[in-house]
UniProtKB/TrEMBL annotation:
GO terms for biological process: RNA modification. Gene3D superfamilies: Tetratricopeptide repeat domain. SUPFAM superfamilies: TPR-like. It comes from the Eukaryota. Belongs to the PPR family. PCMP-E subfamily. This is Uncharacterized protein. NCBIfam families: PPR.
Amino acid sequence: MVVSETTTHVARAVERLSLQIERCIAGRRLLRGRLLHGHLIKTSLAVNTFLANRLVEMYAKCGQIAAAETAFAEIPSKNAYSWNTLLSSYCTASCLDCAKALLDEMPEPNIVSYNAVISGLTHEGCHREALEAFRKMQREGSSRLAVDKFTVVGVAGACGGAVDLRSLQQIHGAVVSVGLQLNLIMSNAMIDAYGKCGEASTAWVLFQRMETRDVFSWTSMVGAYVSAGRLEEAHQLFDRMPTRNAVSWSALITGYAQHGRGDAALKLFMAMLEGGFAPTAFALVSALSACTCAALVGRGRQLHGYISRRSIGGDHSENLFIQNALIDMYAKCGDMVCALKLFERMRKRDIVSWNSLVTGFAQNGDGDRSLALFQEMISLGLKPNHVTFLSALSACNHAGLVAEARQLLALMGEHGVCPQQEHHAAMVDLLGRSRRLKEAAQLTIFAAPGDGKLDGVGSWGAILGACRVHGDLELARRAAETLFVLEPSNAGRYVMLSNIYAAAGHWEEARKLRKLMKEKGFKKEPARSWIEVQSVRHDFVAEDTSHCRTEDIYRILTFLADHMKEPASCDELVGSRQQEATAVLQCR
């Protein structure tokens, strides 16, 4: 009887103390939780596994990971819940290395353990590591590791982030094999993942099978069509949506902006505002990107005003990329004064902020300023990435600084950045522009077989462009033949080689190439440019005569062409441009 009464007393005490710890967790009352912990130690109830687990959870929810670890270590008899509580705490606090180490240490990790790690890694963008954890789980093959709905959602998110279609199909197959029915959240995750992997058709099959859909289902399907470049179908589905939110609008706006449809993206953005939707940060960045690709700096300024009036894009970390997008927009539209002012006003900058400005000065022909910014960035202890080096190489290209470009390539290794194909292509282009065509050719032609750094499309394209300027017919033919293999559907390469033949007087070869293009059904889109004047965009194509001020335009072109003939030491590139201008005028 005494034993029974004691047991009942302890059970009631455990229940009462558990409720008190729960209140501490709900209210994040750390001080009260510490007092309860002290009371448990004094009353010897700290050895109770259930209460000890609650203490670990309490410390973790209050952000005290070290205290949670101590409480975990003091549990004399740990159960699966003990391990999973600390594991989830690590994942919530983004201590992913600790989470992976604890998973390896666990005597018998269950599906909850793996789900916590997979979800945590996916949430932090460590998609490959999340998929590796899933594969490890599959290799163990225990009955306690049967895939559940949380596994599906976590792994699908990782597959979408990593664009890993094979792993996505594996998790889909596992769902079918265990007879797991896809619920709303699981279906949404699968549709989103298939869309990111470019499998819009499979995503559509899943979408059609859903008995119940929410706004995320529709938005994910719109996103799937956008990722596949099927913008018309995306827009049609968007129009059919029973309800929309700001994320739905952002998905379609982003799609049009990413596929070079700046005008359509901006029209959608205006419709979104007129519909009373507050734009998300992604929608704002996409609208700025649309202004950039369409060179609509006037519209970009209007957007800047909208952002400023609503105090969007301040110095909060989540809005930093809006500021970076503004700098990028001004820089790419040629307004480096505004880009620099924005940069100087920023209280907090990241690598993207610096890259935008370094790239902007390089693209606008101020190589010296670009390289000076690069050096300032290095002196401040910031670590440049592959984009930074590419921009600095571009600056060297504009300024004709061959020696400095070589130093940059050597410097990349010191900063842990491996030169990629585009870096070597920039070097080849610089050598070609600097009349070192043979050196550029040797760098490309004598690369190790299969060396993606040197023998890629970018390097051979730069060689072909340099041959066009310098008139090296044999090397041009070799470069073009290589490009025909690497890019069999790129009509521009055929046109460039044809123009090189024509410039050299090899009319028969030029005619044969044009005939071959016709047989293959190739048709090169005419070159297009545009300019914004008083918020109105004017579009032009090569040899355009449709503009209302055509006569004035060609009068100025004639004037410029005449002046380009005058300097005796005129650069060959300028000479090439003058020949083009003269040819156009002769056509008229």
